[in-house]
Amino acid sequence: MIEIRFHGRGGQGAVVASRIIAEAAFREGKDVQAFPYFGVERRGAPVTAFTKIDDRHIRNKSMIYEPDHVIVLEASLIQAVDVTQGLKKDGMVLVNTESDPDEIRRQLDFDNVAVVNATKIALDNQLGSKVQPIVNTGITGAFARASGLISIESVEAAIMNIVPRYPEKNAKAARDAYEAVMLPGGG
Amino acid sequence: MVKDIMTGNKATAYGAMLARAQVVAAYPITPQTTIVERIADLIAEGKMKAKYIMVESEHSAMAATIAASNTGARAFTATSSHGLALMHEVLMWAAGARTPAVLVNVNRAMAPPWSVYADHQDAMAQRDTGVMQFWAENNQEILDSVIIAYKVAENKDILLPAMINQDAFYLSHTSEPVDIPDQELVDQYLPPFETEVKLDVDNPKGFGSFIMPPQYMEFRGHMARSMDKAREVIRKADREWEELTGRSYGGLMDMYRCEDAEFILFGAGTMMSTAKDVVDELRKEGRKVGIARLRVFRPFPVDEVRYLADRVHAIGVLDRTYTFGYGGPLFNEMNSQMYNHGKRPPTKNYIIGVGGRDVRPKHIRGIFDDLEKVSKEGYGEEGEIHWWGLLDGKTPEEEL
Fold first, then answer.
1. Does domain B253-387 have CATH number 3.40.50.920?
2. Which domains does chain A have, with CATH numbers?
3. Å between A62 CA and nearest CA of chain B
4. Which of A26, A135, A170, B232 would be a feasible disulfide site paired with A118, CB 3.0-4.6 Å?
5. Residues 279-338, chain B: which have Cβ within 8 Å of A?
6. A131/A159 Cα distance (integer angstroms)
7. Of B190-199, B256-265, B376-385, which one has max mean pLDDT?
8. Which of B277, B291, B293, B399 is the mutation pick for testing A, counting most A CBs within 10 A?
9. Which CATH class is domain B2-245?
10. How does pLDDT run across B87-140, given as a tens digit for each residue?
11. Distances from the Cα of B216 to the Cαs of B97, B209, B210, B213, in angstroms?
């Protein structure tokens, strides 16, 4: 089973991102679960969401403690939340940031880090505003490439099905982020 | 048939839609709210043809549901926790008036302390109302159970309300794949509700009139008989659903690898789904273990419990709540069903997951280990009731 944890802020759409990844994997024949951290959500406060992906039927209903991958929708969360908590040693962290990946690696004290400037990609695609860019769709495209778990086509199809407003622009953002993501080890 | 990824609350709404519920009484409460929101959407989109009644409380929601059902309509409502507690009086009325309405309860802890998380006290406290109780372990089972519950409730030999229980957040807010059965298939399984006894302005009748002692007991006796008869009706409804969809929930009890099991855990809801994974792991290690997941709490699966009693070395009973006084409700029920029966293997009560504490595979493994120890060495000082993981002021070793 592959377990993914999402860190975002209330209103950023971490839960929707968890559902996009789940649906993309489901389209490739996997069984999936997507769920928010069972908390009371407030706009701007740190929120967590999860996705489980497996070849077999997923019966385990417990939360995720040792994720294979972590997705961070906003780099400032690194200061607020221990985003690598429980992360498997061979796991991967994907961060939305304009910073150099080495800077993030240093901050996290973790090497296997991919970065993408999903904020810029969102604004380039007229998604949201400078104050509140819509980054949750773009980052799923970056995850498709960085993880190799799901195809960008499945992510695009999932976005077209799930995202109610401007699905095409959101799918384009995912494709742009797929192209732009800087992978661990460069590339 | 279409497969889609949906939350338990969406599966609930789709179940009501596919069952062609004609009247829905709605009063929101966390974590049920998105059920009534989704039903409102389905009606607004023209996908569901139902009268949507917004009411001022859960008490009124159930009262409106009963009234609608008494006119011969298929009626539906949903609630959670304190909302269900407020319905308590009207649940008794629904059962006494032989109302085949269906409600979905999102299992949530009772306050204080205030909580919105998974806990079974809300539903277990409705044990004696005369409402049938189904329990789901995944979103597919919720959707299917709404349809199956109407089939059972509307059976002329039964005519009792039914409640489907689904764990807060673990199902209500978790998205997973669900088969959406074709409407034609559901229509074939569940024909329109028809009853001769109904409120009709052209043929006036009354429900719930005053009655003298000689008659009252007759009514209650008949109600008890219907509830007993529901066991066979539920098993049959489950088999018929399996013929159409390939999905069975085991009738009243979902037995997983119990055939040759020496140690089994009995309990309800999502934690038993997690426990099945642990059974597979332990089986690989050569341990004969199984899961008896409660599918129907009312009527109680007496035959299934006695079947297990005849075969196993020990039974661990998982309760996600407590009967303040003594033991968890499932523990007490299981023990009492075995008392007048031939074999009585040792049982131990594990109180776990109360108020949404996560039930993890390692907890289930620990409980199986403990149960085997009990069967060999007896209860020890701790006794037969164990609050699993209770900290009692200690610092937790892990995130709870």
1. yes
2. 2-180 (3.40.920.10)
3. 5
4. A135
5. none
6. 23
7. B256-265
8. B277
9. alpha beta
10. 999 999 999 999 999 999 999 999 999 999 999 999 999 999 999 999 999 999
11. 12, 11, 9, 5
